[in-house]
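Try it yourself: sequence plus xanthosine-5'-monophosphate, in.
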Amino acid sequence: MQEKIIILDFGSQTTQLIGRRVRELDTYCEILPYNKFPKGDESIKGVILSGSPFSVYDEKAFKIVLDDIRGKYPILGICYGAQFIAYTCGGTVEPAGTREYGRAHLSAFDTDNVLFKGIRLGTQVWMSHGDTITSIPANFKKIASTDEVAIAAYQVENEQIWGVQFHPEVYHTEEGTQLLKNFVVDICGCKQDWSPASFIESTVAELRAQLGDDKVVLGLSGGVDSSVAAVLLNRAIGKNLTCIFVDHGMLRKNEFKNVLHDYECLGLNVIGVDASAKFFGELAGVTEPERKRKIIGKGFIDVFDEEAHKIKDVKWLAQGTIYPDCIESLSITGTVIKSHHNVGGLPEKMNLKLCEPLRLLFKDEVRRVGRELGMPEHLITRHPFPGPGLAVRILGDITPEKVRILQDADDIFIQGLRDWNLYNEVWQAGVVLLPVQSVGVMGDERTYERAVALRAVTSTDAMTADWAKLPYEFLGKVSNEIINKVKGVNRVVYDISSKPPSTIEWE
Ligand code: XMP
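Structure, out:
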C-alpha cells in the first residue's frame, strides 16, 4: 500500500506548494478539502493542516473536529493550521499588533526538538499572517520565536502535534524543506519511496484491474500530458487503447505529421484525423476571439465523437488531466469549485466512463514519468500550446493563407530558439499575426505587407509571466530571417509585456 501524507486545505494560496514540497521528498501526499478527511485509510502516515484566508475566531472560518485525527496521526499545523489547533485547545489568537508579513528569522528555538533537526539558529522564515497566537494552553510548549513573534512554533507536550506560524512551504523559508522533511520522514516515518518507477508500476496494475478487457479512447493533442497518459495506458492495456489526434488546421508547421510519427514510433495505436477543411469553413469570417474558441471546441468534440463511434464497444474516455486541474480549491465563500477537464464538454457528450491516470501528478512529475517511460526528450520538454492553436494568434479573421504565413514565421522563431539553446529557457514562445500592414522597402520596391509580433515568456505556471529577455542578436537574426523568407511579412516586433496585466496569448 502506498503510504501517504494528507494535507487538509483550509483555503490558503500556498496549499498546493505544501503538496509540491512533500512530493519533492519522494513522499506521496494528497491535498483534500478540510472537511473531506478519509477516515479509516490505513495508508495515512501524517496530517498537515494548511493556512487559510480566515481568522480562527471568524464565524465563517473552516473548522474540523480535531479529535478525529488527534492521537491517531502526527499533525503539523501551518499558519492558520497552527492557530486553529492552539485556539481549539484553549489558547488565544488575536489580530497581530503589526501585521506579520515577509521575512523574519528564528532568533531562538528548541534545538533538541525533532522538528528543527539540522536547522540553523537565525534561519530565515516567511511570515504571512494578520493574526498571531498570544497564549498557548498549559500543555503546549513554545519551541521557537522570532524578534516579532513570541510563539513562532509550538509542540503539544507528550503528543505528536506541532504548529508553526511561518510557512515552511515557500522558497523564502530557507530551511523549510528540511523542516518538512523532519516532519514527514523523522516524525511520520515515511520511507521516501515514491518515484516515477513506483508510480508507473502501481498505476499500470491499477489500470489493468480497472479496465480489464474494455476499450478506451484518448484524445491526443501533441502536448506532454495527453502523450504521457497515452504511453502509460498503452503499457497497461496495449491495443485496447485507441488514440485520436485531430488536426484542426491551426497546428504549427508540420506538427500533425511530425507528432503523428512520434506517436507511431512509441507504438501507440493512433488515428490521425485531418479535419482542417471543416474548421476553416466554420471559422471563415469569424473575428471575435471567444467565438473562435467556441467553434474550435465544439468542432473538436464533434470530430472526436464521430471517430470514437467508429470503434466498437468503447467504454472509457481517457484524458491527461493533471493534479492542479483536479484539486478542489476552496473559495472564500466556502463553496467548492468543481474540478475541470482538459477538453470541456467531451465527457458529458460521450457518455463514457472517465479514466484519468495522471490526475494526482504535478506537471514536473508527469515529465519525470514520461522520461521513465522512455519517451523522447523533445516530446517531454515541449512548450504549452493552446487548444485553439494558431487561431488565437491570428488577430482578425482566419484564412488558410494567414495560417501558412504564421506557421512559417513561427517555425523560424521556434527553430531559432532550439538552435541557440534558448528553447528550454522560456516557458512558451510563438508568433502573432497582426491585422496591420505597414510600408517597407525591399530592393528598389516599396512594400505594403503584414507585421508579426514575437512573444516569448518565462513563467512557472502560466498564471503570471514575464517577457523573456532574449539576446538582441538572436532577435535580430530571427527578424531578418522571417522578413527574408516569409512572403507577406515585412515587419517584426517583440512583445515586451508581462502578465498581468497582459495575457500570454493575444486573444
Ligand atoms: P493566457 O493567454 O490566458 O494563457 O495568459 C495562459 C496559458 O493558457 C494557454 N491558453 C489556452 N490553452 N485553450 C487552451 O488549451 C485555450 O483556449 C487557451 N488560451 C490560452 C496559453 O497558451 C498559456 O499557456
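One thing you can check immediately is this: Residues 293, 384, 386-388, 428, 462, 499, 503-505 surround xanthosine-5'-monophosphate (CB under 6 Å).
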